[in-house]
Design goal:
Blueprint (H helix, E strand, L loop, with lengths): L2 H16 L4 H8 L3 H8 L7 H10 L4 H4 L7 H12 L3 H13 L2
Helix pairs in contact: 2-3
Length: 103
């Protein structure tokens, strides 16, 4: 069994639980059988792209978030952001206007 399938299944299960959905409820919403969802969550099978799209819609997340396996510390994020924008005037403007838009 592939590690990435296990990690993907674990993330899907985490998002399902955050939405307080049972396997039965989620399977019905995305139009697959419960055993199929169980196999996805345990990493026995990888979901199709179509199923991933349905999951992301129902679980109100982005597809890439299912593959976000290694959380980064706040300090590391700040370090990377500072490095990337240090000498990039265009990126500084983008970040500035983004931050102003969410105030």
């Amino acid at each position: 069994m592939s590690d990435i399938k296990k990690l993907l299944g674990k993330k899907i299960k985490q998002f399902r639980k955050l939405k307080n959905l049972t396997q039965e409820e989620l399977a019905e919403k995305i139009n697959i059988e419960v055993p199929s969802l169980s196999n996805i969550e345990t990493g026995k099978f990888a979901p199709s792209f179509e199923t991933l799209q349905k999951l992301s819609t129902i679980l109100e997340t982005n597809i890439w978030e299912f593959y976000y396996f290694n959380p980064i510390s706040k300090e590391k994020m700040v370090e990377v952001i500072n490095y990337k924008i240090k000498n990039n005037e265009e990126l500084i403007k983008i970040v500035y206007y983004f931050l102003k838009s969410i105030e």
